[in-house]
Write a structure and sequence with these properties.
Blueprint: H1 13-20, E1 24-29, H2 37-52, E2 56-61, E3 71-76, H3 83-94, E4 100-104, H4 107-111, H5 116-126, H6 139-150, E5 155-162, H7 165-171, E6 183-188, H8 191-196, E7 201-204, H9 210-220, H10 222-225, H11 235-238, H12 241-250, H13 254-264, H14 269-279, H15 285-296, H16 300-312, H17 318-325, H18 332-341
Parallel strand pairs: 1-2, 3-6, 3-7, 4-5, 5-6
Helix pairs in contact: 2-3, 5-6, 9-12, 9-13, 12-13, 16-18
């Protein structure tokens, strides 16, 4: 137990490191557990360790009964931050506890073609025992059958990369769609969708700090992993300048570290330097394409405010930016709110 933590502080890296180093995690669910940001962050870390390190997790319910109702949980953050990885880890660790489990990947992309939502509804229906022959031809029929077949079953449903409220309405519906103790997990770049769908539990995925990014990149690289690092919390100061460039360029995004790992593997340090000299002029396309999706989804006035901030007001506080842009035709306050909701600010 970390007795030095004070209310309102960020959970310390040392505390997360302690979770990683534990063989057994005892999770005590109290009445206010779900309302605590710390507790949710700890739980996500524990579930990650259960998946990656085979950590034993023991739940204890203190003055509460195991939840009987349907819970919807949102996982929110920018592209490449690890929302899908977290959702997969949770799904894989608890799927066996449910009557029906379904992981619907790439909902945004799969919904674009004509009939895309119907296709996703059919995938969900196919997960019902004996439901492989059930096929629907329109979304309304799909909604009716999902409610009919799943309203009395304990369901685990993951909706990955949602970007439209319509997708939630057609696939995740309401609490009455699923039986008691069901769980619906939604990953998205837009927190407003979660509020609009009345999702109460929302976890924001944060960028990795320099030490975390350093540790992750080193763990992926066998050659670097063989080096003796005395203190992982201070490993950033212990590594070569070339590796510092990698970690700083990734800016805490696990996806960026993954791309750079593939790109740099097997190359010499001199070649690393050439690569990053090039990125100072032209950013890595694979990383840019992922991040660009969020920008392209913005309305034109919001894009304009985003570009103004990026080009002219980076580092300025909100009030200064609003005052500077108020004389234009755009509505800066609303635009900034939208950017925050979409994890762009």
């Amino acid at each position: 137990m970390d007795d030095e933590l004070c209310k309102g502080q960020e959970i310390s890296q040392s505390f997360l490191t302690a979770i990683e180093g534990s063989r057994i995690a005892v999770v005590v669910f109290s009445q206010n557990y779900a309302s605590s940001k710390w507790c949710l962050e700890e739980l996500v870390k524990i579930l990650e360790c259960k998946e990656s390190r085979h950590q034993l997790v023991l739940p204890i319910f203190y003055k509460v009964e195991p939840a009987e109702d349907v819970r919807m949980v949102g996982i929110w953050g920018i592209g490449g931050i690890g929302k899908t990885t977290i959702a997969k880890a949770i799904h894989n660790s608890i799927a066996h506890e449910f009557d029906v489990n379904c992981y619907l990947a790439n909902v945004r992309e799969e919904s674009i073609p004509y009939g895309g939502l119907v296709k996703l509804q059919n995938i969900l229906l196919s997960k019902i025992p004996g439901g492989k022959d059930v096929k629907v031809t329109n979304v309304d029929e799909g909604i009716a059958l999902i409610k009919e077949f799943l309203s009395h079953k304990r369901v685990l449903l993951v909706l990955d990369d949602v970007d439209q409220l319509n997708q939630l309405n057609k696939l995740g519906g309401g609490h009455d769609w699923f039986g008691l103790k069901s769980r619906v997990i939604i990953t998205t770049r837009d927190t407003h969708l979660l509020y609009a769908h009345q999702v109460k539990l929302i976890y924001k995925v944060k960028e990795l700090c320099l030490e975390e990014a350093c540790e992750l990149f080193i763990s992926w690289n066998g050659q670097l992993a063989n080096r003796e690092l005395v203190d992982y919390e201070n490993c950033f100061e212990q590594i070569a300048p070339e590796l510092q460039c990698v970690v700083q360029y990734a800016q805490g995004l696990p996806l960026a570290l993954t791309v750079l790992r593939s790109l740099l593997r097997g190359r010499s340090i001199d070649e690393w330097q050439v690569v990053f000299d090039g990125y100072k002029k032209v950013p890595n396309k694979e990383i840019q394409d992922i991040l660009k999706l969020s920008f392209e989804a913005l309305e034109d006035p919001v894009k304009e405010v985003f570009l103004d901030i990026a080009c002219f007001f980076k580092g300025r506080n909100k009030d200064y930016v609003v005052q500077a842009l108020e004389g234009s035709d755009i509505k800066p306050k609303f635009a900034i709110t939208v950017l925050v909701e979409k994890a762009r600010s």
